[in-house]
Fold this protein.
Amino acid sequence: MVCPRCGSVERSPHGSGSWIAQETFMGRVSTLTRRRKALLAAGVVVAVGGLAAAASLLAEGVGGARPEAVGRAGAVPAPVGGGAPTRIGQAGTDETEPPGGTDPVEPGDVTPEPSATTVSYRFTAWAGPGCTTGAYMENGRFENGDAGWYTVESGGFGESPCDGRFSALPMSGSPDQDRGSSAVWSWYLGDGFRECALTVFVPRSVRDSDVAGAPSVYRVLSDPRDTDSAYTGFAVRQPEHRGTAVDVRSYPVKGDTFAVQLVDRGRDWGDAELVGAHHAAAQLKASCR
């Protein structure tokens, strides 16, 4: 006996002359019209595609972490300008990564800049609190005892044209986000300058918490009035350089003014040495050519 729909046959175990039909999936398919076979094939394709898309989304949700936003709105996170910021730390030490999670360029990894005694600069000037040259301004300053901004009367660069005072800038509380306080140094150069070498004076104070940026993050600006004009940056570990002038490196000049901004990102809580920590905003020197 032959199945009238699928044509499949099987011999019955109960008798030599008896046949029974075995209904199979392919047998069912063979009975469909050509139009229904096409619809079935299309449905299979859609189902397989849906399963593949669902598997892809599940894999992305498990393996891909959502990136964190770095800095407040309008801030340029580190690294800026397409490269990692230069971190100035004690030579020979193994530093942790800077804010933003990228490895720093250590002093030993950078070709040393020529010293000021071997390079002829057309313009050299200090700027900062208590200096009569250059320009210096503070944004978001507020007074709240040791929790706010305050002025330290000595410990900074005290030679002419500066008097040695410096400002202690409160930290934002986060190592990778700014709260709005900043200090800006600027120098008007005019036309014809292509680069400036920077020197950062890290002051010394009777309280280590006054000079505690670890690190303090600086951004180089093309316009001192526009904090979104940053095009590169660097970081200095202040506790390792208290009382010294740190030669950073040279940076390109973009316009007739050269400017540097110190932002307030940093953690001032947790470990005992971090409680009440401030960034020191002291004197910077620009040597330009």
Notes: The CA atoms of residues 2 and 202 lie 98 Å apart. Confidence is low (pLDDT under 50) at residues 8-25, 57-112.
